[in-house]
């Protein structure tokens, strides 16, 4: 199997939301990619400029970053031709690698705009930005590509913000950090998500038990699904005893703590994602992983803190 490390550059309406197309707010104008073997060595590369169809004038912030002009973009290929050529170049047995999750999202949104055949589902990829953060930052904070290259002392011999150069830099980061368990560190792309219960994604990888749910009509419906709220051990899959009940920790996140009789405390988080099909429709990304007594106590303290804040707010409203 090969690794396809790719990067995109995109443009947006130079006139703000008034000039934005609702189906494609970000239009891809460059694809750059390198193909790696299983030793993370570059064995081939692909690059193409794309002639814009919607936003022919570069947004001022985009123009400031890029290393080419609007005139050069006029010589580019159509998106359909470039994307088809790129996907054919990828071959039959490969995994995508990107710096962050945005590139895959925008690639698919542009493909949908032109009614191209969809990518495989569910789609796994390697988010090198997150893998780097997990390995090199105690708090898992993500870094810009430039910062990672500087920290790893990777020679910066080409300008950033050219798709082929950023793809090469991302590949060099991957080759430098060489994660032993890379095959376990995959991420599920959620540009597309399960629609029905039988299509839900449940996987155990890199010490995390992950579930990507079907669509719900609202957050309230999701949080009334008893099956979804069961906390299972990230190691053995057994049902855990509830130690901290589910509570809302921000507008799009809920948390809980369970305890497996064999493997100890388990921290579980639910993130609500817009399903897009209805105004209030959501799907859920739920991740459960092992924690310790300290982690349990911190989540418990957070629950109590938020509970007291709500009490104070209700008290003030009654005054």
Automatic annotation (TrEMBL):
GO molecular function, one term: nucleic acid binding
Keyword Lyase: no
Recorded superkingdom: Bacteria
Alphabetic keyword roster: Exonuclease, Hydrolase, Nuclease
SUPFAM superfamilies per record: Ribonuclease H-like
Domain Exonuclease: 2-183
Official protein name in the record: Inhibitor of the KinA pathway to sporulation, predicted exonuclease
Naturally occurring in which organism (per UniProt): Eubacterium ruminantium
Lineage of origin: Bacteria, Bacillati, Bacillota, Clostridia, Eubacteriales
């Amino acid at each position: 199997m090969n690794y396809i490390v790719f990067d995109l550059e995109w443009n947006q309406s130079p006139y703000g939301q008034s000039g934005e197309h609702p189906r494609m707010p970000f239009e891809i104008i460059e694809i750059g990619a390198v193909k790696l073997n299983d030793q993370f060595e570059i064995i081939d590369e692909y690059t193409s400029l794309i002639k814009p169809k919607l936003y022919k004038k570069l947004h001022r912030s985009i123009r400031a970053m890029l290393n080419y002009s609007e005139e050069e973009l006029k010589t580019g290929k159509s998106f359909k031709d470039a994307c088809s050529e790129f996907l054919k170049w990828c071959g039959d047995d490969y995994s995508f690698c990107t710096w962050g999750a945005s590139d895959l999202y925008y690639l698919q949104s542009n493909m949908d705009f032109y009614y191209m055949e969809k990518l495989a589902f569910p789609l796994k990829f390697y988010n090198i930005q997150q893998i780097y953060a997990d390995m090199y930052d105690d708090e898992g904070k993500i870094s810009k590509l430039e910062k990672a290259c500087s920290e790893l002392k990777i020679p910066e011999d080409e300008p950033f913000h050219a798709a082929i150069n950023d793809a090469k830099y991302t590949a060099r980061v991957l080759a430098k950090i060489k994660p032993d368990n890379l095959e376990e560190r995959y991420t599920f792309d959620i540009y597309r998500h399960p629609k029905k219960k039988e299509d839900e994604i449940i996987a155990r990888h890199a010490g995390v038990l992950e579930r990507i749910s079907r669509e719900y009509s609202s957050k309230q419906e999701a949080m009334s699904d008893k099956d979804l709220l069961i906390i299972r051990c990230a190691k053995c899959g057994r049902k855990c005893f509830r130690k901290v009940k589910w509570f809302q920790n921000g507008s799009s996140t809920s948390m809980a703590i369970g305890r497996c009789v064999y493997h100890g405390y388990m921290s579980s988080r639910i993130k609500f994602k817009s399903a897009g099909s209805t105004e209030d429709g959501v799907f859920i990304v739920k991740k459960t992983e092992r924690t310790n007594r300290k982690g349990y106590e911190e989540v418990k303290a957070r629950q109590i803190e938020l509970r007291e804040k709500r009490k104070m707010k209700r008290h003030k409203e009654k005054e």
